[in-house]
Input
Amino acid sequence: MALQDRYEAIYCIVDYHALTHVHDPEVLRRQTLEMAAALIALGLDPERCTVFVQSDRPEVTELCWLLQHRDPGRLAAADADLQGEARQPAR
Output
């Protein structure tokens, strides 16, 4: 909890991970609120740090989609080009 006083602390309640075993939306909502309450009870102060719920940020799923759908072949080719340039003697 001391990190929130020394740094720009960001805490995330990762409710997407719970979807692997919690399938009832009402249960998930309740557990998410319980986690937020527990973090605050432990001493997190939302005035001194950022606390957010993973599913409230569309950027989380957007980034996941981008990372899962990148073209690994193109990345490997770019990496090979860079490695080839690194091996060539400077002119």
